[in-house]
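Help wanted!
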Amino acid sequence: MKSTLIALVEDKPGVLNRVASLFRRRAFNIESLTVGHTEHSGISRMTIVVDSDRTDVQKVAQNLYKLVNVIRVEDVTEQPVVMRDLALIRVRANGSTRSEVMQIVDTFRARVVDVGLETLMVEVTGAEEKIDGLVDVLRPFGVMEMVRTGRVAMVRGTMNQ
Amino acid sequence: MRRTGAQIVWEMLEREGVEVVFGFPGGAIMHTYHPRQEYGIRHILVRHEQCAAHAADGYARASGRVGVAMVTSGPGATNLVTGIATAMMDSSPIVCITGQVPTAVIGSDAFQETDITGVTLPITKHNYLVTDVNDLAYVIHEAFYIARSGRPGPVLIDLPKDVQQAETDFVPPEEEVRLPGYRPVGPGGPEVVRQAADLINDAQRPVILAGHGVLMSGAMETLKTFVKKTETPVALTLLGKGGFPESHPLALGMMGMHGEAFVNQAIQEADLLLAFGMRFDDRVTGKLERYAPQARKVHVDLDAAELNKSVSVDVAILGDLRQVLEQLLPLVEPASHREWLEQIERWRGESQTRDIVNQSDNGHVVAPQVIHALWEATGGEAIVVTDVGQNQMWAAQYYHLDQPHPFITSGGLGTMGFGLPAAIGAQVARPDKEVWAVVGDGGFQMTVHELGTVIQEQLPQRIALFNNNCLGMVRQWQEFFYDRRYESTHLLNPDFVRLVEAYGIRGWRVTEPGDTQQAIAEARSHPGPAFIEFQIVQKGQDGNVYPMVPAGAALHEMIRRPTPAAEAREKQGG
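Answered by r_m:
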């Protein structure tokens, strides 16, 4: 099973390195880790996806707290959350397949963001399963390049502080 | 007030109450060394940077304050690594200040450049690379706070040369630190404390496992009160020695791989283990799957990551041990465990018949008897600092502590070479105390050059060396578990007495057991540093550390000291 942790950390040099080093040292298995700015300057937010069959999520949280620059860690796995992953996909699409690809893109509520002679670049946002689904359908046309951001997550409803 | 970065370092060390720095200068830290004499801080020049960290560690443990090491960049900094890792494993508060190449050339593989914050990331509690002189004062203040608060540990500050040289208006930092995420002490919580009290009140066969946390939280007196009220016997970890008087009627002694057999037996038969400020190290649990199978477990620690790490417990309490014990005391009922204590006494009696201290002179100098003699001569009041290996275990087994001061030893990392430099640190911290370094011939030679520091600083250091011409603990494993193939454990040693005398240290050599007391008495009354070499045998019941839990065995499955009858049988069988 995949578990999702949200960690708020001080935006200081080397913090990502400290987190990554911790995961390696304690032999934690991490599926994905994203990091970016938050509504507060000086605070970054990490979304960490852990394979909880192989790694004890509680231990990940406890060890994260040992890092001086980690402010707060929350396991949101059991909470109602909006989870999103973003992908950019370069797919082969020539004159004969282009319209078919574009129909598929439409069906997945994805967008074409760049058009080349033989290719289309598709941007898709959603839960990981949706993106996996789109990639599966596009693969027969030829997926030439893909980048995914990894999961970001936010709890639904009013924030309880 | 214009100050250079170098001056700010000393200014801040003074403000943090630092009286002594252990160090070794070099190119990238010279600028900081330069103004040292303008400040009231002593510098002790070690012979190798590793020993600056060990000495700072020994100083911290003996004084309860933060120890400080200062070295140059590159090899100076990398030489600290073993000392930092040692301090990390044993939660010892030290601050290491390393020189670094100028910020302009960081990353260019400049002369003596090493990414020491990268190297020490996993072995420090926290570290800093200071790139702006205006941050320096606050960083030093924060570093000391982090080192000593919560679960203490080593903190490293990397200081580029241009930051040491830069001038700024020095403004002392505010007292309060700005660490939004740092929670040095957990909340405890009445609910879990209540649950623990229920288990304690139900227990018939309880045992307290007292660790380093007892000393670190200053819980010695509270623990005594708790023990008296609940009549619970106390087993100690290696670093827990000193937290509870070993002469107390409810003191059992050391647990674990080389703990006393009856102590391990009691743990294995207990129905409740109260783990107070210890971390269930593999050296104290034996095989985890068979550890204390009947016992419910309560664990109190101030590091959340230690709770349920290797042993899952019934009640985990996150908090400062002394505070938690104070919360527990009114909730626990006065109890009597006569039957259980009598059972333990029967096991203890059986153990004592095998105790080598009670066995008669067979012509060999026997290390446990030497430690016993040292303990008697010093009235148990010396600060004992050990190296690692057999010497460490003998000292732990036979130097009983009644004083609430630590047994200074590398417990977690098991760092050979720790003994002498850590003893130097302890002696500097406590000039009023008799400090004995107990070392073996293997570890002693890893840091033997610190004899130079002893002489240069005129320290009244006492050193007891056990010389068996081999790496004794490894040899013991080879004898027990590796087909008696003594691979790479024999040592061709120098004449140690002549060696120490070359440094100007008075030395004695003991080869006959009858001479032990006399040599100890002479060494103790000698005004300067003193060294005694005890020549001991390698093998058999006089040379090995007993008892012993073999790796992978359950805690009670110990190899016991062969009794004379058993030895005679073995001899007949060839």
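OP: Thanks! One thing I noticed: Residues 82-153 of chain A form a domain with the Alpha-Beta Plaits fold (CATH 3.30.70.1150).
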